[in-house]
Amino acid sequence: MIGEFYRAESVEQALSFKQQHPRAAWLAGGTELVSVHRNQVEAVIDISRLPLKEIRETADGGVCLGALVTLDSLAAHTFKDSRLAAIASAAACVRNRNVRNMATVGGNLATRKASSDLTPVLLVLTAEAEIVQVDGTKKKILLKDWLAAGDDSLLLSVEIAAPADHERVLIRSFTRVACDLALVNGAVRVQSAGGKIISLQAALGCLAAHTELFDLTCSVIEGDDEIALAASLRKELATKITARDDHRAGAEYRLDLAAVLVSEMAVAALREGREA
Amino acid sequence: MKVNFTLNGVPRSFDCEAWETALQLLRRKAVLSVKDGCNCEGTCGVCAVLLDGKLVNSCLLLAPQLEGRDVRSSESLALGPDLNVLQQAFLETGVVQCGYCTPAMLLAAVELLAAHPRPTRAQIQDYFSGILCRCTGYEQVFSAIDLVVRRVQDDPEALFEHVEFREDLRHIGKVRRKIDAAAMLRSDPLFVEDMLHPGTLHLKVLRSPHRHARIRSLDVTAAGSLPGVIFIATPENVPDVLYSGAGQGSPEPSPHDRRVINRKMRFVGDRVAAVAAETEEIALQALELIKVDYEVLKPVCSLDDALAGQGEPIHQEPDIHWCFPIGADLSRNLAASNRGGIGDLEQGFAEADVVIERTYRTGHIQCTPIEPHVVHTWMEGDRLIVSASTQVPFHLRRLLSVILDIPQERIRVIKRRVGGGFGAKQDMVLEELAAFVTAKTGRPVYFRFTREEEFVASRTRHPTMITVKIGARTDGKITAVDMTSRADTGAYGVHCLTVPMNAASKSLPLLRCPNMHFDIEVFYTNNVVAGAYQGYGAPAGSNALQTSIAELAAELGMDYMEMIRKNHVQKGDRLEILKILGEGQEGIPQQVSSCGIPECLSAGEESLEWEKPSLQDAERPWLKRGKGFAIIQQGSGLPGLDAANALVKMLGSGGFHVLSGGADLGTGLDTICAKVAAEVLNCPHESISVTSGDTDATPFDVGAYASSGTYFSGAAAMRAAIDLKRRIMDAAADMLGVPDTDLRLEYPGVIHAADGRSLTYAQIAHKTQSGTGKGQLIGVGSFTTESAPIPYGAHFCEVEVDERTGHVRVLRYHAYQDCGTPINPALARGQMFGAVLKSIGHTLYEELKFAADGRCLTPGFMDYKIPGMLDIPDDFRAETVLIDEAMGAFGGKSISEIATNATAPAIAIAIYQACGIWMRDWPFTAEKVFAELKKNTTEK
Description:
The structure holds two protein chains of two kinds. Chain A has helices at residues 11-20, 33-36, 71-76, 85-92, 97-102, 105-110, 119-124, 143-149, 226-240, 251-275, and strands at 4-7, 25-27, 43-46, 55-57, 63-66, 128-132, 138-142, 154-160, 167-174, 184-193, 196-205, 212-216. Chain A is of the alpha+beta class. Chain B starts with a strand and ends with a helix. By secondary structure, chain B is of the alpha+beta class. In chain B, the strands form eight sheets. In chain B, strands 8-10-6-17-14-15-16 form a seven-stranded mixed sheet, sandwiched between helices. Chain B is 27% helix and 22% strand. At the A-B interface, strand 1, strand 3, helix 5, helix 9 and helix 10 of A face strand 4 and helix 23 of B.
């Protein structure tokens, strides 16, 4: 049970609290911590007032998301580079507005849950995490590495470079009802040229314990035959991952869904590329 | 620690704990509009507040996080006693039913309209997406928002466009305010949890971790010595009385098969012990100190296990009691059985050109009222007072009297506003335990289920397996139907006979078939307890029968509509089959007094363009569309079993107070009583107030179940009003010195004599209550009957199946129902929308799942999904057709339960039309549909 509450007004103060109370948990939007972990946490450091709520376009055409940007703000954001709109779409996958109003970019990532709606799109975009360690050291590392580390560092922002001209990024999510954790969610980054896909990278959530990144074969993507592509991807995915089997969905079905989502995104990306 | 924030415009400073949620703090500080429906999971949204203008769940905020913020709850909306424009729009459009989620919905509308003064449908759905409502089906929210937009943006006098019925009547068939809605919109304290006594003990239950076990030893020493623990109930100190918790008419057709706490555990979640303590935290801490040694027994895990004769007998008490035989055989865990029929089945099948036999299955689904089960008990002198969220206050009093050995006159049950019932609150699920502790300790007790307890220890719908053998001639005439039902009642037998019986009694009489037979067996298992749920067994029976007819039509190559029109029941038919489909005793055959099936079929046929195939998506050939429909019936109470009573008192002002024994669950029953009284007494609707469901203040009524409200409780109120009107005319005749035949009553309650003199109700009231007249005029009405009108309907839908994933989307749903005279059209539509959306959830995704050891895997809204506003059909209609009906209060039949019966078969038929597969195992989850599609492809 939470016994202590520390309200941080600055990053420095937040770190100071953390140094004094190493077991204290960071509290941002609270949708995960208060809901799921309230009884396991002894102390919290409220970081919701820190000045990390900005969405900033970077000089190279990318974007920097403050860790405390709410999912609702992100979902409503219009990106200069329309190919980054997939980030907003991913935030909008949290269909429950009450939760979207509270939940933050940092919180959605820091839970390191396979059902995170932002993680797949940020992984395929090779996002970087700006973090500050408890001792005050700031650094930028690949988001992928930060997620894998699972340490106590404080996420300050996530920086995403603009995709190359011939690249498209899309997201999809499959849920039972609108407001639900996905049975499978994912994002793809597709490079295409001459009306053909050159490379297909996918990040898929909810298939396993963590969101997984895959480089997938795209040999059958000659035309726009989603069904044929899905069948091919289904076989390939089965060799690359053992899907989870739980009360929400069986493993085989999850793989079927994943293949369908990826093929749909790939074909859509191909069409976008042609139109562009 | 201190937290300072602005609450509803006023700077406030409160002490709070670090662990405390904003929800807990606000409720502690009497901001009672914030509710808890999901135990801080953050999934139901009824705790919502506006935080700096944004709608957030207060259960997901720690109280200290409110520091310096602006917090608005729905208490801020009302303007003194008056409603603001938003609340008024909600009132007029019939959005409010039970009222539990209403405060959160109002705040969602505030945030919406601040951002989008003229919102689109999609924006409305988005802003309401975080709030779960189990009553309304959300559709009328669009009307409310439209009305408020027009009034704010265009014309303050803008009116709500609505359909009205019965030009011959002033109030009946017209839209009038729901009598209890204003208080709900103002967030007044109305629910059990809003009115707790100081010094109340908190009750918590230790539940069995085993499916089937005997308690070898139970040590509560450590728990009992914990400071703050006041009492611990165990199998050893509870009353040694066997009972059934079923809230049914006495003698009930349910076995008396349980004690308050049993020595034998029969499902994961069964009561082991209960701790009453000064705080909830202490009670929970004490539970962890209780030591139990179990002897684990072999369980019966499913209906299939029970049918295979696996596991040990679950009930072996020598003193188990049945009020009358219901066909039980405890040696094979058979809780109840019945069979019978009409005509000659063999001959009927011999006459058929085509005979098919199909089996349909349903699983565990849960009622999920957003307000969980809750009770507050205390003593007043030697009287036990029970403040309950119940559908059956009078049955509850009777059951408590028997269990606690307290005479009924020393028990008062007060039904508060009920935050959704749907059948789950037809049973005594937790009240007897709290009442027992209060009787034992003399202390007030509060017992509220967590959401998880609601899933595992409340009531579910019976899982069923129904096999239908059905035959027809090539011309489509059905010649024989044989329905075999097997059901799982779980650990105890509440409603074990009646629910499965309804699968037959609310489906077979829809057909004009001379040869019909049913065979029902209901088994005990070591599963969660099944019980009453809106529709009883009718949805399962309706699904099996209607889908089998559609399958038969497909075999015959005949249009399903043509087949239904050839076979459905019609006005004037005599339903002999009802004689053998009684509630455990012989039933009463009924004459069909009115039947709106033809009108409902025509309405749906036209609106959904039944004769035209669905338009397919050429761009996305994997999306397949199809249409389906089903005809339906229910009942209007239980003739020969149900009873209702009411009083109408004339007040000193000339207004009236109706005292109805009926139990309004948010369904609008109190409003119906007010409307029939106002119609009979020819006075304004606003002149009537209603008190209902209080065993001290109101006369007896069986309560709200079996669709009895409008027909029984409404008729009792009507008879009381007629009786009072006679007394008023008598008094007026005396006062004017003329025979009452010379008097006529005119609106608004003025009595005119032939000589031109007149008296107002206020004058008559003054005279009769001033010491010289006849005394206060009170009308008395009782209603029992041997006959009841049957409501009918037809629901149509169009679905889209994604063959790549099995996902089914309901594009259009048009529900048409014959409820005789719609007494209150807006509320009637609300009942239909709510029941249909709930049934869409049941049909497509709602499912309780259990681990092999019996643990519930879906104990919250995160896992057990119910429809939100984003899940409603794009084109969602609910309409009543006016059918002339002679019985009942102004010809009103029931409206709500029936609306749960069509969805599964209509969707199953639409799926078949779309992609050629028959779904026979509901819910038709995407995964199951996908598997069936795959199987179909492989077979081809």
